TrEMBL record:
Domain HMA as annotated: residue spans: 79-151
CDD domains associated with the record: HMA
Cross-referenced Gene3D superfamilies: 3.30.70.100, Calcium-transporting ATPase, cytoplasmic domain N, Calcium-transporting ATPase, cytoplasmic transduction domain A, Calcium-transporting ATPase, transmembrane domain, HAD superfamily/HAD-like
Biased composition (Pro residues): 289-301
Designated name of the protein: HAD-IC family P-type ATPase
Catalytic activity: ATP + H2O = ADP + phosphate + H(+)
């Protein structure tokens, strides 16, 4: 009771002090503004210069300690003044209106005043005047006179108005605070050096309580105002810490205020530079203030606000607990100070000041600096589409970059409609078709979002937004309603703000974690540290955490705003323009640097000669350095795992309680895990680089001197990545198109665009403009990733990289959440395990104190248990398990680009197949022969005759050159004819060929048959050939074949009136006799049906998604065994509301005529219906859906790299059975990880139970921290890694269907069994040791039994794996060496054991293992 009373007394005193402080501050400062006001204005006017007058004004503002602001703020410079007007914030709108008219009228009556206008938003009057004819004092007197006339002379100003960006008050406040911190740091150092007695540390507790109890701080703000509250508390904090020898606090504060001072100075300089633009004309001043509806709810809380709410009741409780346990008010005061979340606040402040400083440097005017501090609460971005449209009526080149940045942090993106921005609508989550922007802002806020608005002229939306960003536009008055006003760089500034918003929440969360770590360590230090260390290092953990948070926040802010430039994407309809106009337009653009260097093409073009000379050498030289940097990055990424800060805190906690060696050991384990994981990650990245190098496309770039003589120009080969808009390239047959390009010339050119459109038929190309055409119909364009089948061309590059149609298709899935991987699933386990370890540590501490242990020893024992029981091997298990699975798949021909996808593979229950090139071979083959009224037998006489005639009308090439025939239909006919016994070569001799042309619609060959003389063979489109046949044959059969999804060729011949020789065959084509029709299709792969069957047997539903014809899709589905019912088309999906679309997609198995965007909609609908989706494809048109899916699988059989770049897994061939093998590997991975987790978590659970039980029985923990770490290494880490990496057992019953959650009943049962059996074996040996020997011997026996019992259970799981058996044997040998080796045994706190002791240990371990085996078998039977 004494402790509880003492706690209540301490907290009560602190709260009472905090309550008195506002009153004392108010009384002490109330006389200051009166004295300042009493200073005659004449004296102020006699000050020597403008800075001195500004300093006086700032001093008066800082002493304005009232609930409402009383001091008038004035900013003036370069003949412009902004003057506060009393009464402009009054509730009486009529009086405000009269005042707004009278003040400017009176000022305009003064000689030398050019214009005056009241700013309705800020409540200030803006005056432009001639400083030689009228001075500022006269202007102020005039304003005061008008205020008297209207009865507002005694009115106050509202604190709600943001500080004017030109006001010097913030600079004066921060400079004063910085000076106070520096003085306090020096005073504390002086006292420490000369050993002057300091003030009691407990005086800091009142200030700490104001930081923790936000209600008290808000009460102080209501009394003396927000700026004065921060100012007074900062000075008080500096004084108290300076006089109580608290060096660290003011030292860290001074670093923060240095950054803050640079921020406020840069903001003011930017305003001074842009003030003529924002306030240089009367028209730029808003005459009326927008009045949007009130916010429907409070602003959402960010990570820091949520932590503050939790901390308010927690901090006094911690201080009270420390007081109750130690009966030391100084320690309780230190615990209360440790609870102050300084790191959380400084992390966000460092980020905000860095972002603000950089944006000011770039010309952005900060109207309200609080906007940067609200970025971590932005979860929705509303964009006025007009800002994304350039002056020429096309989407701005930076529009894509802005939309990408808006959604990069997971925010919901909304955009209004605009005729010129229709192409951008697919990039946003919601389109604003009805209502105003303000309506949608308020709706989003009502749903709990923090909203950022980007607009040029919507004043109400900018005011309503939580963060309003205005762009230069015609309505300059709207800028005053915004928080941030972009510079002439426009969207480049918006892009940086949105990038900062995307990472702001993560920065705040990281800062909160640092604050929690610092507070926990500070409270622990206050509880157990020696008094000599307490006075010197009491708050060191808190200050170090604050310093780290400040540094990390600053670095994150600079990275978000400094690194990189937004990528420009041109939205010009190049296909609608004349090719020469396209070329000259791009040349003009390339020769002009874009604003702010945002366009990468101009500087890169200027540096091209240097790059092309130096890059190869740099690549060779930099390989080793790249690997070294990659290793560092990998280790850093692994250290960002959630367990890392827990282990780091544990290491420091071990040092705090007096065991520095244990802290070093824990830190070594943490670093070792990160390095091992980093090596695994580096290997995977190296394999990916090798794949990328293999896929690099080489382009032929033309050095243009004369556009009309391209054939004579020099051609140089360059990597496709070096192409830039405006370059001219040469294309030939079999080339892979390296970029999007507009054709300048084209000769008999056909392109395979199936990778982009899904259509397997060749597409003829020409140079004609195609206004309004869809992508598939733009005959004058060639697209990145497509293949040239035949012909040649010259083209000018219009887009590269992400700006191409392929890149845009890939980016449409930008908002898709990616599978989190095994690490994320293990984080769920961690969240469950860590509280258990903390409870175990607390239990050991509590029991130890109840058994009479000293407080310090009890806490040390509890900390050692909590730290050692952390399953530190979980991150490494995830990395190694995924790396092992990736290696096994690579041996089967599947490259794993993103190992985290292996986790999702085990849960996949739907596989979406692209058709062309995935389920099918991606090449045309003859599939049916028919006469005018019936199908023909391919082996019959009519069928062979028809096939021979079709082959006669194809190019005459030898059998070994058929594969090089450029036209796909010709190649299909010739290949089939060769397979049929070369029916076309018997006695045939070609004389003259007429090749296929799109305009003509057919091909023909005049030749001689040995027995029949001259023959003219013709094949082509039925609509072209049938009209030239005699007797007007019916087209019914052709229509029937086409309805089955086949490409139909009509075959006819002529055998009369033919010359022996001629060079012109076309006049002879007529009076033909129809022989029949040849049906050509992209046929299914031989292994497709087997792969589909295996997936179905494994509980996975196969779906086909194609851009091809519905009948073609239906036929392919039937041949491959995909359930074939209703076929949904893309048009059907577009007409459905979202709810119906989700339902229908979940039921359907075949989708046809779908665009890349619709493929992503199908994947998203399946995910919303609760499915885990894998998407398999090989083309550009599949890339977005592949990226959207939980698991994206690219097929490497074709040359298009887009699908492979977007994929998580890449199949080296097109064997669909590989997909089934990959799914089984994913399921096996889950099983191995589950077993490894049961070893780690279950073993730690047994260790904690053993420690708690031993402390209960003996009053002291049976084993120490070093021994616990030894147990973890021998029984947890290496055996668990062996289990995780072991292969085999893919025929396990668990692999028959998709796996569920890792946190299932099977894992819970395995952890409980292992924990109970481990505790049983260790307790038996330890108890026997207590009865037969001293305590150290008993502890060693318990340690040995703990290890052997866990290893025995590990062998039960992995007895079939040589790796597991070998690892377990090595662990046993290591245990024996650690226990029996003198020196090492003593270091670990052990003692060598004799034969009897080892026999007891072995027997106890056998008992525990047998119990575990029986419990596991019983649980397995019950589960069935």
């Amino acid at each position: 009771m004494a402790g509880v009373s003492g706690a209540a007394y301490t907290v009560g005193v602190a709260k009472g002090t905090a309550k008195v402080l506002p009153q004392a501050a108010t009384q002490a400062l109330s006389s200051v503004p009166k004295a300042a006001s009493a200073l005659p204005r004449a004296a102020a006017e006699m000050l020597p210069n403008e800075p001195a007058r500004e300093a006086l004004a700032a001093t008066r503002a800082l002493t304005d300690t009232h609930p409402r602001r009383q001091q008038r703020r004035v900013w003036s410079g370069d003949g412009t003044a902004h003057i506060d007007v009393r009464g402009m914030t009054a509730a009486d709108t009529g009086r405000r209106s009269r005042l707004a008219q009278s003040v400017p009228r009176a000022l305009r009556g003064l000689k030398g005043v050019r214009w005056a206008q009241v700013n309705a938003v800020t409540g200030q009057v803006l005056v432009a005047f001639d400083e030689g004819r009228v001075d500022l004092s006269t202007l102020l007197d005039t304003v005061r006179d008008v205020e008297r006339e209207h009865g507002t002379r005694s009115d106050d100003f509202s604190w709600r108005q943001p500080t004017h960006p030109g006001d010097a008050t913030p600079i004066a406040a921060v400079a004063t605070e910085l000076a106070a911190d520096c003085v306090a740091t020096g005073a504390a150092a002086f006292q420490t050096f000369f050993r002057i007695s300091p003030l009691p540390r407990r005086l800091r507790s009142a200030l700490a309580l104001l930081e923790v109890e936000r209600d008290l701080r808000r009460g102080l703000k209501r009394r003396i105002g927000p700026i004065e509250t921060d100012f007074v508390l900062t000075l008080a904090n500096a004084a108290v810490h300076g006089l109580s020898q608290g060096i660290a606090t003011p030292a860290v504060d001074s670093l923060y205020r240095t950054s803050l001072l640079a921020d406020v100075v840069s903001r003011r300089r930017t305003w001074q530079r842009r003030e003529p633009e924002l306030a240089g004309r009367a028209e730029s001043v808003p005459r009326s203030a927008p009045h949007p509806p009130p916010r429907p709810g409070p602003r959402p809380k960010g990570p820091i606000e949520r932590w503050n709410d939790r901390l308010a009741p927690l901090a006094p409780g911690v201080a009270g607990t420390v007081l109750a346990l130690t009966r030391d008010a100084g320690r309780a005061a230190d615990a209360l100070q440790a609870a102050v979340p300084r790191a959380a606040r400084y992390g966000r402040e460092g980020f905000a000041t860095a972002v603000g400083r950089e944006m000011s440097r770039r010309g952005v005017v900060t109207m309200n600096a609080g906007a940067y501090r609200r970025l971590d609460r932005v979860s929705a971005v509303v964009i006025d589409a007009g800002v994304l449209v350039s002056d020429d009526g096309e989407p701005d080149p930076l529009a894509d970059a802005v939309l990408d940045a808006a959604g990069s942090g997971g925010s919901t993106v909304l955009m209004s409609t605009h005729p010129a921005a229709q192409d951008l609508l697919a990039r946003v989550d919601e389109t604003i078709d009805d209502g105003t922007l303000t309506d949608h802002v308020r709706r989003l806020q009502g749903e709990g979002h923090g909203v950022l608005v980007v607009s040029a002229d919507d004043e109400e939306a900018l005011v309503a937004a939580d963060v309003g960003v205005a762009l230069p536009g015609t309505n300059t008055a709207a800028w005053w309603s915004a928080d941030l006003v972009a510079s002439e760089n426009g969207l480049a500034d918006v892009w940086r703000v949105l990038r900062a918003a995307a990472v702001a929440c993560a920065v705040s969360e990281s800062s909160v974690h640092l604050a929690q770590a610092g507070s926990a360590l500070g409270a622990l230090h206050a509880l157990v540290a020696a008094r000599t260390r307490l006075s010197s290092f009491g708050l060191a953990p808190v200050q170090v955490a604050a310093l780290l948070a400040l540094a990390r926040g600053t670095a994150a802010g600079l990275r978000a705003t400094r690194l990189g430039e937004p990528r420009r994407v041109e939205h010009v309809a190049w296909h609608e323009l004349d090719p020469h106009e396209v070329y000259h337009r791009l040349q003009r653009r390339a020769s002009m640097p874009s604003p702010n260097g945002a366009d990468g093409s101009w500087p890169m073009r200027a540096l091209r000669p240097v790059l092309e000379l130096t890059v190869p050498g740099v690549g060779v030289i930099g390989e080793q350095s790249r690997d070294a940097l990659g290793m560092l990055r990998s280790v850093r990424d692994e250290l960002s795992d959630p367990l890392t800060p827990v282990l780091a805190v544990g290491a420091v906690a071990s040092a705090v309680v007096g065991s520095g060696v244990d802290g070093i050991l824990v830190g070594s384990v943490m670093t070792g895990n990160a390095m091992l994981s980093g090596v695994q990650r580096l290997r995977a990245e190296r394999a990916l680089r090798e794949l990328t190098a293999e896929q690099e496309v080489v382009a032929r770039r033309v050095v243009v001197e004369d556009l009309d003589r391209l054939a004579d120009a020099k051609v140089e080969k360059v990597p496709a990545r070096r192409l830039m808009p405006g370059d001219v390239i040469e294309l030939r047959g079999s080339d892979l198109v390296p970029a999007d390009a507009r054709l300048l010339t084209a000769e008999e050119m056909e392109v395979d665009e199936s990778s982009l459109t899904g259509e397997s038929m060749p597409v003829p190309k020409d140079t004609e403009a195609t206004p309004g055409a869809a992508v598939a119909e733009r005959s004058g364009m060639v697209f990145d990733g497509t293949s040239v089948l035949t012909g040649s061309a010259y083209a000018v590059v219009v887009a590269t990289g992400q700006a191409t149609e392929a890149g845009r298709a890939t980016r449409t899935a930008r908002s898709a959440p990616r599978p989190a991987g095994v690490q994320a699933r293990l984080h769920e386990v961690t969240k469950k395990a860590l509280p258990a370890t903390a409870i175990g540590g607390a239990a050991v501490t509590g029991i130890g104190m109840l058994r009479g242990m000293p407080l310090r020893d009890a806490v040390a024992a509890g900390v050692s248990v909590a730290v050692a029981a952390v399953p530190e091997g979980l991150p490494l298990v995830a990395t190694v398990a995924q790396a092992g699975g990736a290696r096994r798949l690579s041996r089967q021909g599947t490259l794993v680009r993103a190992s985290r996808a292996l986790e999702a593979l085990g849960r996949v229950d739907v596989v979406c197949f692209d058709k062309t090139g995935t389920l099918t071979e991606g090449r045309l083959r003859v599939s049916r022969l028919a006469s005018a009224d019936a199908d023909l037998d391919p082996d019959g006489a009519e069928g062979r005759s028809l096939l021979a005639a079709a082959a006669h009308a194809s190019p005459d090439v030898p059998p070994d050159r058929v594969g090089s025939v450029p036209h796909a239909t010709d190649r299909a006919v010739l290949e089939h004819a060769d397979v049929a016994g070369q029916v076309h070569r018997n006695g045939w001799k070609s004389v003259t060929e007429l090749p296929f042309q799109t305009q003509r619609g057919y091909s023909a060959t005049l030749g001689r048959l040995d027995d029949d003389g001259m023959v003219l063979a013709v094949k082509g489109a039925p609509e072209s050939v049938l009209p030239m046949c005699r007797d007007a044959p019916s087209s019914a059969m052709a229509e029937e074949l086409a309805s089955d999804g086949l490409r139909v060729l009509a075959v006819a011949e002529r055998r009369h009136d033919l010359p022996e020789e001629t060079d012109d065959v076309e006049p002879l084509v007529g009076e033909l006799t129809l022989l029949g029709f040849v049906g050509i299709a992209d046929t299914p792969r031989a292994d497709a049906s087997e792969g589909v069957r295996r997936l179905s047997d494994a509980g996975v539903r196969p779906i086909m998604v194609t851009g091809d014809h519905p009948e073609t899709a239906r036929a392919t589905a039937a041949k491959t065994g995909i359930a074939n019912g209703e076929v949904l088309t893309g048009a059907d999906l577009e007409r459905m509301p979202e709810r119906e679309r989700i339902r229908r997609v979940a039921e359907c198995t075949v989708f046809a005529r779908v665009t890349p965007e619709q493929k992503t909609q199908i994947v998203a609908a399946l995910q919303k219906s609760g499915r885990v989706v894998a998407m398999i494809g090989d083309g550009i048109n599949d890339a977005a859906a592949i990226r959207m899916a939980d698991v994206g699988i690219g097929v490497r059989a074709r040359r298009s790299a887009s699908a492979q770049s977007a994929a998580d897994l890449v199949l080296s061939g097109a064997d669909m059975r590989q997909v089934h093998d990959a799914l089984l590997e994913g399921r096996a991975l889950w099983r191995r990880v589950r077993d490894a987790v049961s070893i780690l978590v279950g073993g730690n659970a047994g260790e904690v139970a053993f420690m708690v039980l031993g402390t209960t029985l003996a009053g002291q923990a049976p084993i120490n921290t070093r021994q616990m770490l030894l147990v973890n290494m021998l029984t947890d880490m290496f055996p668990a890694l062996a289990i995780a990496v072991a292969g085999g057992r893919n025929d396990d019953a668990d692999d028959d269907e998709p796996v569920g959650s890792l946190l299932g009943s099977s894992l819970t049962r395995a952890v409980a069994v292992r924990g109970g059996a481990t505790a049983l074996g260790a307790t038996l040996a330890w108890t026997a040791g207590r009865w037969t020997g001293r305590r150290q011997r008993a502890g060693t026996m318990g340690l040995a039994a703990l290890v052997l019992t866990q290893l025995g259970q590990t062998l039960l799981i992995g007895r079939d794996s040589k790796l597991v058996v070998g690892t377990s044997a090595a662990s046993v040998l290591a245990l024996i060496a650690a226990v029996q080796t003198p020196g090492l045994s003593q270091f670990l706190g052990c003692t060598p054991l004799g034969p009897v002791a080892w026999t007891i240990v072995l027997g106890a371990a056998v008992v525990g293992t047998v119990v575990a085996a029986k419990a596991a078998r019983r649980g397995s039977i019950e589960a069935r």
